[in-house]
Design goal:
Among the domains are: 20-117, Arc Repressor Mutant, subunit A (Orthogonal Bundle), CATH 1.10.10; 177-239. It has helices at residues 20-26, 33-41, 64-76, 103-119, 140-194, 198-205, 208-220, 225-238, and strands at residues 50-52, 80-84, 95-99. It contains eight helices and three strands.
Length: 239
């Protein structure tokens, strides 16, 4: 059937296809909604309002009471516009509806989408890749390998420096510990010679360092026991 239109451009050709905007709404409704919508849509145009009663669904082999429920759903979800509702006291006159989704409404909607897409600002991204100079080739893979070498050499250098620092600190600890042990042995020998405890010797001598000096002199033979006793007594009389 050739397409026919009114002077204002509205199609008056009987419509038998579901529109895209109508389909988007129908998929949200229960599955039988598509059958009932085809019964409403088939053979009708977008141009004028139309009267429709629930009994007309029986011509398509559909249930009348379910058809009334789906008509209410169509109005609720914006597929139909109810212009007149038949009442209980006026059963001879059927309800009057009008289609909400027409060719003009779809064209306006697509025009709005195209306008928003046209007015959307263009996002430009700035490339961070360096631009090679004239006569120079940029080799990304070789630069990545060079960076890997640099990072590996730097990490190995840092690990070696950490190992050296750890070794030197451990050596210092071992050296101070051995010195403390040697001083304690010397102080013990001197305390045994003087027939007193180590703590008593360090207290009378004025501390561990002074007792260690006296013990070193005694071990080297620079001071005799009488001289060490004299020094200890002099320190005690002064304090």
């Amino acid at each position: 059937m050739p397409a026919r239109s009114r002077p204002d451009g509205v199609s008056i050709t009987p419509f038998s296809i579901v529109r895209k905007s109508e389909l988007d709404t129908l998929v949200k409704l229960p599955p039988p909604a598509a059958l009932y919508w085809i019964a409403v849509r088939f053979g009708r145009t977008d141009a004028d309002a139309f009267s429709f009663g629930c009994r007309k669904f029986e011509r398509f082999g559909l249930n009348k009471s379910s058809g009334c429920r789906f008509l209410s759903l169509f109005v609720e979800h914006g597929l139909l516009k109810l212009e007149y509702k038949s009442g209980y006291l006026n059963k001879r006159r059927q309800s009057i509806y009008r289609f909400c989704h027409t060719k003009d409404s779809e064209e306006k909607q697509s025009h709005k989408r195209d306008k928003r897409r046209h007015n959307r600002p263009v996002m430009r991204t700035v490339s961070t890749r360096p631009v090679p100079q004239t006569g120079q080739k940029y080799d990304e893979q070789s630069q990545r390998r060079d960076n890997t070498k640099d990072t590996s050499s730097t990490s190995s250098r840092k690990s070696k420096e950490e190992e050296v620092s750890l070794t030197s600190s451990e050596e210092e600890k071992q050296r101070s510990l051995s010195e403390q042990k040697a001083r304690a042995r010397c102080i013990g020998k001197l305390a045994n010679a003087l027939q007193m405890e180590d703590y008593t010797l360090m207290r009378k001598a004025g501390g561990p360092s002074e007792a260690g000096k006296l013990a070193d002199c005694f071990e080297k033979g620079e001071l005799a026991l009488n001289e060490i006793r004299k020094k200890i007594n002099e320190f005690g009389s002064n304090n």
